Amino acid sequence: MLVPLTNDPRAYAWGSTTLIPDLVGRAPxxxxxxxxxxxxxxADPAVxxxxxxxxxxxxxxxxxxxxxxxxxxxxxxLAAASxxxxxVHPSKTQAQxxxxxxxxxxxxxxxxxxxxxxxNHKPELIVAVSDEFHALAGLRDLTSTRRLIDAVGPGxxxxxxxxxxxxxxxDVLAWVLTDEAAPDVRAIIDAAAAADSxxxxxxxxxxxxxxxxxxxxxGIVVALLMNRITLxxxxxxxxxxxxxxxxxxxxxxxxxxxxxxVVRGGLTPKHIAIAELLAVVEPRPGAVDxxxxxxxxxxxxxxxxxVADFSLDRVQAAGAGERRVPVGGPAIALATAGELVxxxxxxxxxxxxxxxxxxxxxxxxxxxxxxGDGELFLAAPGRAGVG
Length: 387
Fold this sequence. Notes:
Layout: E1 2-6, H1 19-24, E2 35-38, E3 47-48, H2 54-61, E4 73-80, E5 86-88, H3 92-104, E6 124-128, E7 132-139, H4 142-152, H5 157-164, H6 169-176, H7 182-194, H8 201-213, H9 218-224, E8 226-232, E9 236-239, E10 245-257, E11 263-266, H10 274-280, E12 294-297, E13 300-303, E14 311-318, E15 323-326, E16 331-344, E17 350-353, E18 358-361, E19 367-380
Antiparallel strand pairs: 1-3, 1-18, 2-4, 4-10, 5-11, 6-9, 6-10, 7-8, 7-10, 12-13, 13-14, 14-19, 15-19, 16-17, 16-18, 16-19
Helix pairs in contact: 4-5, 7-8, 8-9
């Protein structure tokens, strides 16, 4: 069975006003359109053709098709025009402990000051759909960071001294994020905004734009310590538990474990939990690998990730022949270019999908056949053995 899915964009302030409308071929709404969720997450479940939410459809009809009562993943379109918060996601053990702690404290699950809204981890993969997708991820290697701080000059001396003293990056982060560091943070931001460096021009430009939006936020100094990543269309970034990250701009397809646990450290009006971020973050510096898809059959590429919650395939059809793709469980197909016909291998049911259109594929189909001319992503439970 193929079940058409729709949802309205979420109007987060960092969202783009044009990227999603341009993708789907409609006029902009006039406000930010940040994310479209295609899944059964109770915070914003997708809607089926008969008007039910996907979580209701799974509860009522899913078992007959072999589908679980809940999906282990959430698939999104994400369109950023300005930086998301500096954030990190917990491991499953950390999430279970944090959730239990906040439950015992009686904090309502929808409270603005709550950090752990469920007991699950939230590894995620973002794949660029725009020509470029910009992000911060992980802490840059110390040699490069010291070079950047040297380029900033005397105004960054307090930070330079901590890096020269071989303090752990956990200690450096802890200092930057404390209230007593605020005067030094302001001086570092001012010095970086005034600095000039050919090697680090993009990083210094980012400081200026962040300070215009979040004046004096310590997250701006944290951003100076992070790897700046540029994904080209079709490249991915995998974010495991503990990796400090912030998406900056661009359109992408994002898939994650079904969780809403975000530990924020800056660049946001939302709840910031510095102590929890320092407990969860992976402080070791180093490069972050870009995920390049691996061909698995003609026209079908797979983004390998080391988690069992989700998998993601990219299917590209060019008008000749068909692509056959195993679904491997409850799947969601999301088109991002062209026009494609998706046919269930068991039922023979078919749907035509254009950019931004999606469908739930029930497990009893076993596989789908894709024809036409375009691109779609197929999300399913993971094939890895780690959680």
